[in-house]
Amino acid sequence: MNLDSELIPEATRRPGAALPRLVATDLDGTLLRSDGTVSDRTCAALAACTAAGVEVLLVTARPQRMVLELARRIGCTATAICANGAAVLDVVTGLTRLVHSFTVEQALSIIADLRAVLPPGTGFALETGGEVFSEPTFRPGLASAHNRTVTADLAAARPAGGRYVKVLARDDAAAADAMLAAARAVLGDRAEASHSGGRGLVEIAPPGVTKAGTLAWHCELLGIAAAQVVAFGDMPNDLPMLTWAGTAYAVANAHADVLAVVDRVTASNDEDGVAAALEALLAAGGPQSA
């Protein structure tokens, strides 16, 4: 997309203000509209950031296979953090540069413990980033419907490389918040449980893996401080990232737990809230006081 220079009028910049060095944004429920599309306005705002020297980093629960094409389509051509921080995708080459993962045995042990505390109708799946193995009772969502292998015995699944980036548990008749609480109680510090808004869907990452941890690692490599990062999100799995970043925005449709913590609230995802905040940030020359 060609950038219209009028998107960043120099005359409207606040004298002496400093732009952030990096914008980190969640995808579903935040940058993307409810139908999964991204508006021309949002693409233009992201392009304006890039033209102003601000790196745009996608930080999502989606696995790598569900990010690459989208990232390129909306003009993000550097890096994307995927699978809630378990993987770092190089959007230029399409290669995964960093992976935190479970062994098959670790993943199966987690599933066994979760079966004891989650509703009887819960189905399970194992995610590699490139493919997903799921039980017949696991109803695939957007991210898990592609490259999916259905098996009655997850123990028999053997992924390439022999490791998984996520364990997924889903029961559409259950509340995700309740499932998350049960999962955290039984898993303790053996894994990082979160949810990103899908009804009855809980995502289990390797221990200590969060969006914030991998974002901090990426920023350290580039010499970027947390104070120089602006982050956007909507769900509990975004909270570590939002509390780590120097400036954080929740979209108006965010989960109550997010709205209770984040001071800055922009318009909803369906109203291009991220674009609106970025437009104001670029025009002002940097974040304003909350």
UniProtKB/TrEMBL annotation:
GO molecular function annotation: magnesium ion binding; phosphatase activity
Record-linked PANTHER family: HAD SUPERFAMILY HYDROLASE-LIKE, TYPE 3 (PTHR10000:SF8), PHOSPHOSERINE PHOSPHATASE (PTHR10000)
Cited Pfam families: Hydrolase_3
Keyword Magnesium: no
Stated name of the protein: HAD hydrolase family protein
Keyword Metal-binding attached: no
Cellular component annotations (GO), alphabetically ordered: cytosol
Keywords annotated in UniProt: Hydrolase
InterPro entries named among the record's database cross-references: HAD-like_sf (IPR036412), HAD_sf (IPR023214)
SUPFAM superfamilies in UniProt: HAD-like
Annotated organism of origin: Actinocrinis puniceicyclus
